[in-house]
Amino acid sequence: MSRLFSWEGFLFSCLVVIFTFNAIAAPDFLGISNQINLFQLSIEKIILALVMTFVIINAEIDLSVGSMMGLSGCTFGYLYQMGVPAPLVIVICLIIGIAGGLFNGWFVARLGLPSLVVTLATLIGFRGLARVMLEDRGIGSFPDWFAALGQRGLIGPVPFALIAFILLFLLLYVLLERSGFGRKTYVIGSNRDVADFAGIDTARHKMVIFTMSGLAAAFAGLLYAARVGAVRGDVASGFELDVITIVLLGGVSIFGGRGTLVGTLLSILIVLNLRNGMALLSITGHIQTGVIGLLLIASVVIPRIKLPTPRSLKPEAAP
Amino acid sequence: MTLNPAPTLALRGVSKNFGMTAALTDMTLELFPGEVHAIVGENGAGKSTVIKIMTGIHQPSSGVLEVDGAPAVLNGSKSARLRGIAAIYQEPMVFPDLDVSENIFISATSGLFLNRPAMRRAARELIARIGMTLNVDRIASGLSLAEQQAVEIARALSQDVRVLIMDEPTASLSAHEASELRRIARALADDGVSVVYISHRLEEVFQLADRVSVIRDGKHISTKLIADTDPQTLIAEMVGREVGNYFTKMPSTATSEILLSLQGLSVDGVFENISFDIKRGEILAMAGLIGARRTDVALALFGMLKTSAGTVTYKGHTLKITSSRQAIDAGIAYVSEDRRKMGLAMALPIRWNISLATLQKYLTPMGLINTRAEIATAWEYKQKLNIRTPNTDIAVGNLSGGNQQKVMLAKWLNMHPDLLIVDEPTRGIDVGAKAEVHALIRAFTAAGGTALVISSDLPEVLALGDRILVMREGRQMAIINHADASQESIMALATGQKDAA
User: Fold this and answer.
1) What is the tally of structural domains in chain A?
2) Which of A105-114, A124-133, A191-200, B396-405 has the lowest mean pLDDT?
3) For residue B210, what is the DSSP state?
4) DSSP letters of A96-165?
5) Beta strands in B161-282 (DSSP E)
6) pLDDT score of A313 more than 50
7) The pLDDT of residue A9
8) B59–A257 C-beta distance less than 8 A
9) On the CB side of A306, how many CA atoms lie within 13 Å of its CA?
10) Nearest chain A residue (CA) to B351
11) Which of A148, A177, A283, B349 could form a disulfide with A278 if both were Cys (CB 3.0 to 4.6 A apart)?
C-alpha cells in the first residue's frame, strides 16, 4: 500500500504546484466563484469518475457511461415534452440507468463476457436509442425549478450538483475504504478466483457495481440537462474517455485491485485546476488535452520506474 | 539397436538454477539414434526442466549440451528445431481453424505464396510414413487428441527431426490410441530418430523403451537397458530419497465418529466412484500422480465442481453443496494447491487475506469493517503460525512461499472448520516451513478438526496420513492404513503397477 500512498503524495504535490502557480499567474483564480465554476463545468464527469473508480478497481470497465448520460438526458427531454410531469420523468430516467447497468452487469458477470466489449456495445446501443428519440432536434425550456437546480446556487453560491458531488464522495469513500462491500470490490478486482473460493458471490457483486455505474450515469445526464437547459442526441458524447482518464491518473490500476477514492479526488482537482490555469494563460483546449494526456502516460510510467526488476526476472546470461 | 559412438544429443554435467533453487544438478544423459529412451521420475523430479534445456527454452546454468558430439548452444525452440530437436506434449499445439496439411507445414512457409498441391502431397507422405490414415484436408478442430498428436509428429518429421521428445503423450489418450502412438514412436526409432519418452505409466515404459533413465530431485540416478531392470527397481529408484526426521509420523488422533462419508461420488469424465469415510480427528491423505484427479474430488466437496452421481453424508446428513458459500457455511474449508491463482490475492495486505473467508465476522451491523478486530485476528495468526513479517499490512506477495502458505492456512483456520481440505500443503516451500505446516495440520486434528490432505509428495503422505487413499486417472485404487503403507506400495498403485485391492 505504501507505493500507492506515495502516488497520492505525488498527486498532492502536483496539485500544490499547480494551485500556487495559478494563484500567482491569475489573481482571480482563488475567488470562490472561479473555484465553484471550475467544478460546475465538469460536474457530471467528476461524479462519474467516483463510480468509475469502483468499476476499474473491480477489474472491469464501463464505456457506456457517456451514452447512458445522453440516453437519460434525452429521455428527460422527450418525455417532458410529451407532457409527463418532470418529477415522474426523473424517476423514469433513474430507472433506465438502473436497467442499463443491470443489462451490462448481466452480460459481464453472469455470461462472463469482457466488459470492454459489452459496454462498447451498449455505448453504441444507448446512444442509438437517444438519437432515435430526438433525431436531430434539441429540446429545451425545462421547468424553472429544474433549470435553477442546475444553474443557481442552492446553499449560498454552491449549486445542487456540487453538494451532490461532495455527499456522494463521502458516501462512496466510506463504502470503498471502510465497508465489506468495498473490501470485496478490491479482492474481486485483484483476483476473482480467490474471491470465488472464499465464498463471495462475485457475479452478484459485479452486477451491483455496473448498476451503480448506470444509475450514476443517468443521474449525471439529468444534471447535464438541468445545467445546460437543453438536450440533444449527442449529449455527453466521448465523456467516458475523460472519466476513465481521471480515474487512471488518480492511480487506479487498469488491471484492478489497486487505487483509492482519494486518488481519484486528487486527480479530479488536478485536471480541473490544470485546465483552468492553462485557460487563464490563454492556452488552447487542444494543448490542454495534450498536457492531460502526457500526465496520464506519466501516471502509468512513474510507478513502474520505482519498481526494481526482481532478480529472478532478469534475463540470464548464456553459459 | 546399436549404440553409435557419438550420441545425437547429450547433456554433460548440466545444472540449472532458478534463483536459489536448483532444478537440475550435474545431469548427464545421452541419446543415441534409433533408441527409445524413457525418462521416469516423480512429479517435480526435474523432467520438464530436462525437456526445456533439450529444446532450448532454458539455458543450462553450467555444464554442456552436445549435439552430434560437439558443444552447442540452443537459443529457443526455433534454434532447437533447426538442429532437428522437437518436442510434443500431452496437449498438442494445433491451430484449430487450419487443415491438417497447413498445420503440418505451419512454420515452413518459405516464399510468398503457398504451393498448396505440393504441400498436400508432402503432408500425405508424412502421414503415411507414420502409418496413419488421415485426410490432410480435414480442419484440425475436428481431430481427436491422438490425431492432433499425429499432426504434431508429422510436423516434426517435416523438419527432419532427429530427436523427438514426447512428454506424457499418452496421458489423455484411450488405450487403443495410446498403443497406436507407441507404435508410431517405435517406427520413428526404427527410422533412426532418437525418441525421448516421458511417462508415468511404467507398463508402457517396459513395452516400448530400449533404455530408461531415472531422475530424482534434479539428479540423474540411473540409466539402464530395459532388460536390466524391472518395475520394482525403478519405483525404488524414483522414490528413494533420504527421509528427514520431520517426516516422522505422529500418532493418529482419530475418534470413532464419522464426519464425512462419500458414496460413489462421480463427476462425468473427471473421476468416478469415489467412496470413503473420514472420522473426526483423522487425517486422510490422498496420494497419486498429477492427473489422478485428486484436486477435482476436493473441488466437488467444496461446491466448485458439479457432481454427476453419488452422495455425500456429512455430520450424519446428506449434503448437496453447489457453491463455495454453502461449503464454508457447512464448515468445510479448502486450501488450494495454487497459491497464486486461487489461494491468495497477492497484491493485497496479509490482513485482508486472512479475514477474507470470514469477512462477515468483522462487519458491523452497518456493513462496515471492524478494523481493530481484524488486526487482532491477523496478529493472533501471525504469532500462532509464526508468519515472518514486520506487520500485517504489507502485500502478501512480498512474503516467502512458506509464509504465504501459512497466511493461506490462517485464512481457513480462522473459520474454525470441521473439515479442512489441504491441497499440496507444502509445495514449493522449504524444509523448515514444511515441518511447521505439518505440525499445524497435526495440531488442528488434535484439537478435534478433521483433515483431508492431498499430496504428491510421498514422504509427506506417509508423515501425515492416518490412512492413505491412492487415486489413479480418476479412479480410487485403494485405501491403505498407515501401518501397511510404504512409498513403494503407494507408487505401485499410483502408476497402475498394482491393481486396486
Assistant:
1) 1
2) B396-405
3) S
4) HHHHHHHHHHIIIIIT---HHHHHHHHHHHHHHHHHHHHTT--B----HHHHHHHHSEEETTEEHHHHHH
5) 163-167, 194-198, 211-216, 219-225, 258-267, 271-279
6) no
7) 83
8) no
9) 11
10) A183
11) A283
- B68 and B131 belong to one structural domain: yes
Residue with cell 505409466: B201
* Count of Cβ atoms closer than 10 Å to residue B215 Cβ: 24
CATH label of the domain that carries residue A60: 1.10.3470
Beta bridge partners of B39: B198, B213
More confident residue, B174 or A56: A56
pLDDT digits (tens, 9 = 90+) for B430-453: 666 778 889 899 999 999 999 999
Give the residue carrying C-alpha cell 476473482. Answer: A192
Domain CATH for B313 = 3.40.50.300
Q: Give the ipTM.
A: 0.86
Q: Which residues does B73 contact at the CB level (< 8 Å), separation at least 6?
A: A318, A319, B59, B65
In angstroms, the CA B399 to CA B404 distance is 6
Show the domain range for A87.
2-23+35-301
Map residue B275 onto helix, strand or coil.
Answer: strand
- Decide if B152 contacts B167 (C-beta within 8 A): no
* Cell numbers that stand for B21 in this block: 533453487
- B179-186 contacts, C-beta under 8 A, 24 or more apart: B180/B132, B180/B146, B181/B146, B181/B149, B182/B207, B182/B208, B183/B131, B184/B130, B184/B131, B184/B132, B184/B150, B184/B153, B185/B36, B186/B36
Structural domain span for residue B172: 9-239
Give the single-character DSSP code of B501.
Answer: -
Q: Residue B348 is nearest to which of A187, A200, A312, comparing CB atoms?
A: A187
The answer to whether B218 touches B189, Cβ cutoff 8 Å, is no
Q: Which H or E run includes B422? A: strand B419-423
Q: Strands A153-155 and B9-18, how do they pair?
A: unpaired
Contact B359 A258 (CB under 8 A): no
How confident is residue B487, by pLDDT bands cut at 50, 70 and 90? Answer: confident
The verdict on a CB contact (< 8 Å) between B324 and A198 is yes
Which residue shows C-alpha cell 491422438?
B146
Q: How confident is the model at residue A3 (pLDDT cuts 50, 70, 90)?
A: very low
Whole-angstrom Cα Rg for chain A: 21
Asked whether the beta carbons of residue A190 and residue B368 sit closer than 8 angstroms, the reply is no
Q: What is the DSSP letter of B41?
A: -
